[in-house]
Design brief:
The chain is mostly helical. It has a single domain (about 5-245), classed as Rossmann fold (3-Layer(aba) Sandwich), CATH 3.40.50. About 45% of the residues lie in helices and about 5% in strands. Helix 2 (about 40-55) packs across helix 6 (about 170-175), helix 2 crosses helix 8 and helix 3 crosses helix 4. The two termini are about 25 Å apart. The structure holds nickel (II) ion.
Length: about 240
């Protein structure tokens, strides 16, 4: 059940029976030579939309631009500054809270967002704490790629060639969502180098094709189908645990 494809009376009816919502959050950034720029947003929204349909959970519009300054050396990458993303999250959460949503579950697809989303949660809860009142909101950040079933399947499918950026798992999942965009490709070297990164210039100098530690030549629509099922099951299990407190 997608908020953007619902009418306001449908949302009002939903709120009469539920106070939870899933908010996919990602990034718009390069994902190597054959990965889609929208990968980190497509993955969580693909899982959230499927889980939402299966279990009747409302899914908010995807927050598809995140903190990705280190990818700006590659065309197409967009970033918000951390302070901007915190402001966006505060306003989105306040809007949802105004209507009666209380249990806000953010499904994230981008490691670079984590610190900023957690800072935003501290900012939001802090307003209540400083005023001496209890926060009526429950906020959770979950990373789809760290789900129990997803992690086990990524290890089974790709082992140590999964890497950390432009991974075969995330690229497979986007190809399952958009099979017409699948671009199988051979890489040399097959597995990209690994290492730390600082700013955008440093990133492109160290990792010229954009990958880090990964072998996206292993990506496939078939692997994406299995990761999709694993990710939806992880999400439904974790969301139910979140609601149960
Ligand atoms: Ni990614």
């Amino acid at each position: 059940m997608r908020l953007s494809l619902s009418t306001w009376p449908q949302v009002e009816a939903y709120l009469a029976r539920a106070t939870g919502v899933i908010v996919p959050i990602g990034s718009t950034e390069q994902h190597g030579p054959n990965g889609l720029v929208g990968t980190d947003a497509i993955c969580p929204e693909h899982l959230a939309w499927s889980a939402g349909e299966r279990a009747g959970i409302l899914v908010a519009p995807t927050l598809s631009i995140g903190v990705a300054q280190h990818h700006l050396g590659f065309p197409g990458s967009l970033t918000l500054r951390p302070t901007t993303l915190i402001a966006v999250l505060e306003d989105v959460v306040a809007s949802l809270a105004r209507h009666g949503f209380r249990d806000l579950y953010f499904l994230n697809g981008h490691g670079g967002n984590v610190a900023t989303v957690q800072a935003a949660f501290a900012q939001i809860h802090g307003r209540y704490s400083l005023a001496g009142t209890a926060s009526p909101l429950r906020l959770r950040l979950a990373n789809w790629y760290l789900g129990r079933r997803v992690q086990a399947l990524s290890r089974e499918l790709f082992g140590d060639r999964e890497g950390s950026h432009a991974t075969p798992s995330e690229i497979s999942l986007t190809w399952h969502a958009h099979p017409d965009r699948a671009q199988p490709m051979a890489f040399d070297p097959e597995v990209a180098p690994t290492g730390a990164i600082a700013d955008a210039a440093d990133y492109r100098a160290r990792f010229p094709d954009g990958r880090i530690g990964s072998a996206p030549g292993l990506a496939s629509v078939a692997a994406g189908a299995r990761l999709h099922e694993a990710g939806v099951e992880d999400l439904l299990e974790d969301y139910a645990a979140f609601l149960a407190g």
